[in-house]
């Protein structure tokens, strides 16, 4: 069991996951700071409240803190937008010519050759 655990850790997937979690936590802190210190005050100008998380209303003894929900929605939208932009930039950066991808991936090259041979044999069969 210890050997399997060692192989699991060394394989890279666990390390990649750990790095992703740590980076995600750091990224969340940055986004929270942006929302709290930059976007929150801009929204507060229009809403009249300095701290959105303080916005609330009560019905009887129930207190509805809709300001915190607004903060969380803003955080979610910003995180989603930034991740979208980062993924889009990465995809654009690594986008390759499909012919070059075939040359680099031996499995894809083999499949392409098989497809081409099948096309040739189907064309010959259709002519006969």
Explain what this protein looks like in three dimensions.
The protein is built from 5 helices and 2 strands, in the order ααββααα. The protein is mainly alpha-helical and 128 residues long. It folds into 2 domains: 2-95, Orthogonal Bundle (Non-ribosomal Peptide Synthetase Peptidyl Carrier Protein, Chain A); 97-128, no CATH class. The protein has a two-stranded antiparallel ribbon. GO terms for molecular function: mechanosensitive monoatomic ion channel activity. Homopentamer. This is Large-conductance mechanosensitive channel. Belongs to the MscL family. Pfam families: MscL (PF01741).
What secondary-structure arrangement, pairings included, does this model have?
Layout: H1 2-10, H2 13-47, E1 57-59, E2 62-64, H3 66-94, H4 98-104, H5 106-127
Antiparallel strand pairs: 1-2
Structural class comes to mainly alpha
CATH superfamily of the largest domain, please? Large-conductance mechanosensitive channel, MscL, domain 1
Uncertain regions: pLDDT < 50 for 5+ in a row?
none
Shape designation: elongated
Number of domains in the coordinates? 2
Transmembrane segments: 12-31, 73-90
Keywords: Cell membrane, Ion channel, Ion transport, Membrane, Transmembrane, Transmembrane helix, Transport
Subcellular location: Cell membrane; Membrane
Membrane topology: Multi-pass membrane protein
